[in-house]
């Protein structure tokens, strides 16, 4: 499967094709395709139902940029009964299931107009496994120019079983059968006897789950299409930031930073998901202090240790050995990008046969520890799904382990010199910030798609509500003197000041735990400048997703009235805006707030002062374009700081701020 030329080919036809299909009509079609995914398309969806029944994808070769090859291939696989049945679990880490899902991705990404896209989707929806279909259409909508302006319904309302405790699902079924609407309170997975419960609000936050799965849809490890800029470095950076943020949440709750995993030691913390597949039984539970077992058909523990040692050897040598025996230097600013491709590993890895797929195999190994030999025929664990992985504390232990491998590489690079860090046009004279305060609030999400549809029992409104972290809006004021007019690059970081024992971190120790709060470009004039920046402007975060019921209602109203869809297009990849600040504590938790300014020449694009390109490029890049910042991700805290005086340049300003948590707000 290669889609390198798909985007270019489609741009020629999309403008004309979309003239006959409004955005509202296409959004309505998407909503209907993913609604009630385990039930056949409703007869009220006349066009899609007709396509599902009578459309022939192999009869429209001229509507595919590959001449219909992918459509012919998938139809043949279905006719030969080679695809996974419906009403069965799906995991992207299952090789054959992934292949089948990617066959549909291949078909949809080659569709050159919206009619072909949606008619094919309707046809294959009724003939393929539901999990494979949902994954394929979400990836295709993310990457196809035909659907680039559409809004993906939140997965936690499309496939609620993956995000909702089984007890709540059972209550929802009871509500429907008794025709009694219900709004049910959902608790986190563990009891208060488990210290990890203190930070469950982070790993089990459905916005966090959503960000993680959509990041991997934006940057799939299997991607063969048009080259994604700095994909390996983004893999490192997005997961490094998740780990740093998790450590900040732990410190906010009087817990030590998370320990890394070791293949030859037991997994300290068990996990009981309390969730079930729609079809396939309960998610497996892992007890405390579970020693790693070899997983049949996946990996032996000795394989994982060998893979790790080969990667560490490459870091020590300063190069990756390619399949042909030549070397790729990694002791430079681009090395992190290569190393990210190797560790994940993605198809960009220069030598996957030798260096393996440490990250992907680790997810599979951890997910299968409840039944490593298949003795009990258990379904995949939460670690084998990107949408559920962060719920398991072992996810963060795994990524701390890999993060330390990345750090080993970064620590080999020479520290920045004062001359490299200095931008002599700018002198930051001060930074003010309004009060930083967090609180918990109730969040309600719809469970309608968790329930089966029948003609004899009417639907009733069923929702779940759960406590989630949020914060009051805040504003930075950055005071900077410029010698002359200029466009500048502004990076804002937040870092815990103290460890769990209230001992102040050394700068070189805690710089690896810096959290990127914002990255933006602004014009300054000669003289004094006040750069005001609001929390909701952050380029690492996204606001709450539009709920599925709202999306359905808005699209239907727009189509009925012939008006425009009154919802802006938005990316699904992005850290939840609500979780931008760590929780802090009641007394005010001390953090270093660092503002670092460099020149506008760091900008890759010319329009960054007025165009935020989707507003989530800090962790998710710019979709289909180059990452906007030329500097390494995490600059200037990505390298060792052996001498604090080096970073004391006029264009850097650091001060201590406090993050308060209002425990009485609810």
From TrEMBL:
Q: Where is the signal peptide?
A: 1-19
Q: Which domain of life is it from?
A: Eukaryota
Record key words, sorted:
Signal
Q: Which GO terms describe its molecular function?
A: oxidoreductase activity
Q: Tell me which InterPro entries the record gives.
A: Di-copper_centre_dom_sf, Hemocyanin/hexamerin, Hemocyanin/hexamerin_mid_dom, Hemocyanin_C, Hemocyanin_C_sf, Hemocyanin_N, Hemocyanin_N_sf, Ig_E-set
What are the residue boundaries of the Tyrosinase copper-binding domain, all occurrences included? 392-403
Mind telling me which Gene3D superfamilies this protein's record contains? Di-copper center containing domain from catechol oxidase, Hemocyanin, C-terminal domain, Hemocyanin, N-terminal domain
Claim: DNA damage is one of the keywords in the record: no
Which protein family is named in the record?
A: Belongs to the tyrosinase family. Hemocyanin subfamily.
Q: What is this protein called?
A: Tyrosinase copper-binding domain-containing protein
